[in-house]
Fold this sequence. Notes:
This protein is of the alpha+beta class. Helices cover 54% and strands 17% of the residues. It has nine helices and ten strands.
Amino acid sequence: MTMSQLEALPIVIEGHSFICNDHRMWNLNEIHRVLGLPASKMPSEWNNKIRTQLDRSGNFRTVNGDGGGTWATEAGAVAYAMWVSTDFYLMVINAFIFMRNDAIVRERVAVKQADEANANLSIAAPKADIFDGRLTNGGSVPWNWACKSLGLAPMKLKEGLKRSGKFVQKWNPDSYADELRPQEKAFSIGLFVTKSVMGKDTWQVTAKGYAWMQGNAQKWRELIADGDRLKAAERRAQKRLNRGGK
């Protein structure tokens, strides 16, 4: 796996996160300003053979106007750090090493989780003939069934759809608690139906609703994975800050 295939994570230097742009380039002016580096070490002051060679090879890009500055690839940022000072170089190279290792570890974890999810689906998901039969005959299936058959985490998907406004928090008198459920509009257009199961009102997914879920499944899986990765990165960053404060 190459770095171009890995997610572009932020680098963390002295507790500050720096995010690259869509071209995997970091704003050296932002790094200089946030970390309070000397004025003599501004990116515009760097002018030697290494800078010239990296500039020619596309490792630097100067952007004028608001939000502009000197942008650098990982190689360019490391070279700039070497020019600033040995201590700063070590901080920057360690930040990039941590980012790379973190991305690789998270990719491996994601693959492992996907394998485990597939194994669980073979046990927890309903038999295909029963599942398809219900929908084909105009029936409906529970939310968990529909999610598991598409490889989606039921609760995480509910939370994501709530953030997008498609699900709402509503009081359930049967459970005496709030629950996440579809907007009323989704029932009126036939994506979901209200059912009575064992004397309790619940809601289920119709064939139309399942087709809607199928059409969005890949996007939702990616959004859920992105959310998991972001939360994990935030937890790790907070742990590093806590350790640094001790």
